[in-house]
């Protein structure tokens, strides 16, 4: 609609404008009419049209802590080409701009903020997107250029789970709280934080005498988190034991799928093929979604 109105204004300028030039005494009236038309079809500028970035680190932490908002940090550098791509595509996407609402957006120049970069180990690959709480604790991170769709999805996850995260982040003696926080931070790219909490949850579940099925599910979650941080050997050993131990078909099927991935990650293609063959025998429907064993 806006483009159509703009086109009508242009036609007016091309036709009526010529007439106005021939009648100088009505020039002022024509100019006023044009201004009215432009104002009618041009929406007023709004703060939400752009992300309200700040480069003041201390202020960002103060605001985040006072208003209980997460901090979204874009660690960038002048020489970083992918950083510029994100500025020109991801961070101007309406979905991302909307997703940033309710957060504290912070821009950190990697070359000018050495202490910050070292604290969060954020200078190894740029751009790096950090998700922090008001106390400066890392909730998650994304490394490299991230497209608008993925960024909008991650921001939705961050905002929907942040309040619960604040309640549970210091709870280390409750299995359910640990599992929920582990899942939240893993979805935000914090695999090591997820592993730390799931290790604790596994120990507590055994100590508390939780049902065997529940313990198996926690073991599966832990193995998936280990694989996500590149600990494929530990993940593979945990999954292999789980496959033989669990009495739940759903857990065993998922464990087989993940075990095949772990073996591939270790360069053990032959072992991965054996796992896939078993998956095809025992869970043909599930195997159809992960491909066929050679």
CA(first)-CA(last) distance? 55 Å
Radius of gyration equals: 27 Å
Helix content: 55-70%
How many separate helices? 14
The strand order across the widest sheet is 2-1-3-4
Approximately what portion of the residues adopt beta-strand conformation?
5-15%
Tell me about this structure.
The chain has 294 residues and is α+β, with helices and mostly antiparallel strands. The radius of gyration is 27 Å and the shape is globular. It has a 4-stranded mixed β-sheet with strand order 2-1-3-4. The protein has helices at residues 2-22, 27-41, 57-67, 81-88, 94-100, 114-120, 148-168, 175-187, 191-207, 212-228, 232-245, 249-265, 269-282, 284-288, and strands at residues 71-76, 104-109, 128-132, 138-143.
Quick description:
The protein has helices at residues 2-22, 27-41, 57-67, 81-88, 94-100, 114-120, 148-168, 175-187, 191-207, 212-228, 232-245, 249-265, 269-282, 284-288, and strands spanning 71-76, 104-109, 128-132, 138-143. With 294 residues, the protein is an alpha+beta fold.
List the topology elements.
Elements: H1 2-22, H2 27-41, H3 57-67, E1 71-76, H4 81-88, H5 94-100, E2 104-109, H6 114-120, E3 128-132, E4 138-143, H7 148-168, H8 175-187, H9 191-207, H10 212-228, H11 232-245, H12 249-265, H13 269-282, H14 284-288
Parallel strand pairs: 1-2
Antiparallel strand pairs: 1-3, 3-4
Helix pairs in contact: 1-2, 5-7, 7-8, 8-9, 9-10, 10-11, 10-12, 11-12, 12-13
